[in-house]
Amino acid sequence: MMTAQHNRGEGDGAYGSREAAEGWRRGAATRVQSVGLATDMMLDMANLAIGSRVLDVAAGTGEQTILAARRVGPTGSVLATDIAARMLKVAAEAAGQAGLSNVTTQVMDGQQLDVEPESFDAVISRLGLMFIPDLPAALAGIRRALKPGGKLATIVMSSAEKCRYVALPLEIACRHARRPASALDRIGLFSLGGPGVLEAALTNAGFSNVTVQAVPTRRWYPTRAEALQDRKNSCPEVGKLMADLSDTEREAAWSEIEQAMGQFEGPNGVEVSGEVLVGAGTK
């Protein structure tokens, strides 16, 4: 996931720490389960082909970078960018372990893409665009980086109503930290999830043939404790919201979050459904 400034980018933000990078790495298997279908759709919509040159904006720990690199083959390449250096370090190590020599990483703010104009066949961004405060600047930079006819394909979170498993811990953390509900808006997680919002953003940025599809997500955990650990791994924003609490207060908040996970529990463990949006546009 991510170049982000809301939380991911005030300096290094919630995703810049060593703990966040390690947690995000540990959450990779869950993300494959949850957004694997949407990721394949994003890569299809980006029209990746053997030899394509791809820019991955807000690449995070790079699972989708590696999938893209395999699709474009050794004659193609993927440049993975993110504002969080530690995230990219994990991505670079994963690419090396996968034996891929066509992946490079570069620390870069998604709002100020410092790449050659018209030098990429495709741009992808998985769970990152919604975090960028100046989205028009980011989309203008992405469009500038694309060759004529090149494609942008992206995945963003749907609305908080459609993603209760993700939203609930954030709402509880806000309440315990005595922060207003607007604190969630500043995180930006659901900022592109409302009806027509992503479509309008891509259209206003000058992309043509814009399409946005809702794709269901599914996650399963054997126990409530494992579901809670996934939130700790994959949503450092929760911890950041509670940063000023005492240890006792923080424990109480996590305890309430774990209890709230009970609403998703069934005979087979914790099963949660949600939704992401997969959008694409052409330069």
Describe the protein in words.
By secondary structure, the protein is of the alpha/beta class. It has eleven helices and eight strands. Strands 1, 2, 3, 4, 5, 6, 7 and 8 form an eight-stranded mixed beta sheet that branches. Helix 1 packs across helix 9 (224-234). The longest helix is centred in the N-terminal third of the chain and has 18 residues, at 28-45. The chain is globular, with a radius of gyration of 18 Å. Mean pLDDT is 89; it is low at 1-12.
Which key phrases capture this entry?
283 residues, alpha/beta, eight-stranded mixed sheet, 11 helices, 42% helix, globular, disordered N terminus
What distance separates the N and C termini? 23 Å
Calculate the mean pLDDT score and round it.
89
Number of helices: 11
Low-confidence stretches: 1-12
Strand-residue proportion: 15-25%
H-E string: HHEHEHEEHEHHHEHHHEE
**Could you tell me the number of beta strands?**
8
> Could you estimate the helical fraction of the residues in percent?
40-55%
Q: Major sheet, described briefly?
A: 8 strands, mixed
Radius of gyration: 18 Å
- Tell the overall outline: globular
Structural category: alpha/beta
Topology (SSEs and partners):
Elements (H helix, E strand, L loop, with lengths): L17 H9 L1 H18 L7 E5 L5 H10 L4 E6 L2 H13 L5 E5 L12 E7 L8 H11 E12 L6 H13 L5 H6 L9 H8 L3 E14 L2 H11 L1 H6 L5 H14 L4 E2 L2 E14 L1
Parallel strand pairs: 1-2, 1-4, 2-3, 4-5
Antiparallel strand pairs: 5-8, 6-8, 7-8
Helix pairs in contact: 1-9, 6-11, 9-11
